[in-house]
Amino acid sequence: MKRGITGLLVALPFMGMAQSFTYHIKATLKQAEANSVLRMTYILGDKNVVEDSATANSGVFVLTGKVEKPVKARLVLDHTGTEGRKGRDVYEIYLEPGNILITGKDSVRYATITAGKVNADHETLKVSLKTMDAEIAHMAERYKQLQGQAVKDTLEVAAVDSGWNVINQKMDDIRKAFIVNHPASAVSLDVLKMYAGPMPDYTKVMALMNTLSPAIRNSADGKAYLAKLNKTLTTSIGQTAPDFVQADTAGHPVHLSSFRGKYVLLDFWASWCGPCRAENPNVVKAYEKYKSKNFTIVGVSLDNASTASKWLAAIHADDLNWTQLSDLKGWQNEVAKLYSVEGIPQNFLIDPSGKIIAQNLRGDELAKRLATLL
């Protein structure tokens, strides 16, 4: 069954609301197991995770509460009551004033929602993005087959990388169109953040930010994101990389400025980050090829004190034979905050004068860029 939406399309000044409102979620899944649990998670403020749950009562789940603004929530149907929040029967909604009615058979994933304007907008976006499902599935299968090869087909690797880039661009185009066509929607600011990603192109993102309604731009969330966006200017291409000092694996303080005169890749990663570890062979390959040609790497780990030993083990296991730094504060790493890092892996290529000349180089992009410089 395809997801659909009907119901109350009443425009409310959500983003300007100063007082909290009550939401009522009623999910009716008549064929759901008797001991199943509907689990809900959403985030308030700066990564403050809120959790709630409801046990089936004759196939009906009820969740109610108060929030101060429309907020995206993740619903997971735990079919046995023991799976926790890691199940795949997932449905995303927005908490908004009034009744949020969800109906289906035995799955929330394929349910139908009847709610207000915010969820109507969200469903519109999901329908648009769903047009990409076939392309994503096809590319995922090609990637899976590639991973099973003992010796990778380099042409297929390049084709798959190119294919993912095309898909990501199409999805960005869908998100951009949604923002432009829904400037007053409470959903649009969240979509803008997804469009921007962890390393936003300031000019492109700011242009879209300015298409949003004054109510959304001037909301608390709008102002907070604008401040964050403005902060990225200090680490954008063409800017001098902010200097810092942080301890290496032996506890010795290291200044970024001490590498002035060389090309430096400032690489943010962590031992627990799967994509980082998968990317490390590409970084090692570039380092080994260009380390004698005025190039080096400074790694900054977002490990914390409890994973310090795993950080050191990962450095050894992945052959990361360059300067490695960390204050072992996890996501609160001072250098990560200085560079507005909110996702890893992430990197900045810095020239001998200390200016940032590239960001977020992946795969063979680093080696290709260095080949033009060294």
Explain what you see:
InterPro entries: AhpC/TSA, DUF4369, Thioredoxin-like_sf, Thioredoxin_CS, Thioredoxin_domain, Thioredoxin_ResA/DsbE_sf. The chain starts with a strand and ends with a helix. Strand 15 (346-350) and strand 16 (356-359) form a beta hairpin. It has helices spanning 117-130, 133-147, 154-181, 188-196, 202-209, 214-217, 220-231, 274-290, 308-317, 334-338, 365-373; strands at residues 5-6, 21-29, 37-44, 48-55, 60-67, 71-78, 90-95, 98-104, 112-114, 245-247, 253-255, 263-269, 295-301, 323-325, 346-350, 356-359. A five-stranded mixed beta sheet has the order 1-9-8-2-5, covered by helices on one side. It contains eleven helices and 16 strands. 35% of the residues lie in helices and 24% in strands.
How is this structure best summarized?
The protein is 35% helix and 24% strand. The chain is built from eleven helices and 16 strands.
Please give a handful of descriptors for the protein shown:
374 residues; alpha/beta; Immunoglobulin-like; Glutaredoxin; 3 domains; five-stranded mixed β-sheet; 35% helix; globular; disordered N terminus; disulfide bond; Thioredoxin_domain
The name of the CATH topology of the largest domain is Glutaredoxin
Q: SSE order, as H and E?
A: EEEEEEEEEHHHHHHHEEEHEHEHEEH
- State the oligomer: single chain
- Low-pLDDT stretches are 1-18
Instruction: Write down how many β-strands occur, each being a DSSP E stretch of 2 or more residues.
Output: 16
